[in-house]
Write a structure and sequence with these properties.
The protein has 82 residues and is mainly α. Helices cover 70% and strands 0% of the residues. The protein has four helices and no strands. The chain has helices spanning 3-11, 14-34, 46-52, 56-75. The model has no long low-confidence stretch (mean pLDDT 86).
């Protein structure tokens, strides 16, 4: 039995969500505490972002993501149109 179902049985449906919120806050605090500060900041420009749209690998990744999302939507029982 998944832990979320077990906890939800005794605490209601909000219990697992609150537990995940606490775990996410602890993870964020740990990352903020233990990741060293480098002091270097990358310069971001709109021109560089637009230039990245010319890369074939980016379009391949975006196309794969679209296909995966479309297939999962197609297989959802509530998405059937009558």
């Amino acid at each position: 039995m998944p832990i979320g179902s077990f906890v939800g049985h005794y605490t209601g449906w909000r219990g697992p969500f609150w537990a995940l919120a606490v775990l996410a806050a602890l993870a964020a605090a740990s990352v903020g505490r233990f990741i060293p500060h480098t002091g270097q900041r990358a310069e971001v420009s709109v021109r560089a972002e637009v230039r990245a749209l010319g890369q074939g690998r980016l379009w391949l990744a975006l196309g794969g993501a679209v296909l995966i999302m479309a297939e999962s939507w197609r297989r959802t029982p509530t998405s059937r149109r009558y």
